[in-house]
Amino acid sequence: MSISPPQYDEAALLTRIAQADQSAFTALFHRYKDRVYEIALAYTGSVILAEEITQDVFMRLWAHREKLPALHSLAAWLFTLARNRSFNVLRNQSTATRREKELLHHLPPAITPEGQRLYQQEMQQLIQEALALLSPAQKEAFVLSKMEGLSREEGAARMNIAPNTFKVHLLKAIRVIRAYLVSRDVFGWLLLAGCCRW
In what residue span(s) does the RNA polymerase sigma factor 70 region 4 type domain sit (predicted)? Predict the structure, then answer.
């Protein structure tokens, strides 16, 4: 006699998550993470952005977990959130691109070697200020990946942690640094591309 697998009871799972049950949250994450990632990737066309959006969607789910039992369709809520976060990211990138073009329009046609040296010094100073905002683990992951050029596996081995944990530290570090650079009216993507191995 075969034993049928247990039925998936999403309502019970949401109730457990609302009570801060992390094992229930993990089960839900593994059930929906690939689909949320696929939606974010389809809208953004970027693996990095899709990973960040997926992480953000589930962080928001956890942050608002007490409201989950009242949802009529968790899947619809997650997919709508993934779509909206993707639109927001694309809109922010479009704004940054316009600001970048405006800045480049006002730059002199040629930058002297001395001006370039001062620019690089200023950029490095801003990066160091941003790094000071990170937790020790986030800072180490960022330095290993973006400044030393190590792979996720190499960085994880250096820190003696799992590759997925390394990735989480790195994504959080990138988000903090990008927000800091934007707050200083600096274009984070350009800065990080120029100062680190992106």
Answer: 125-174
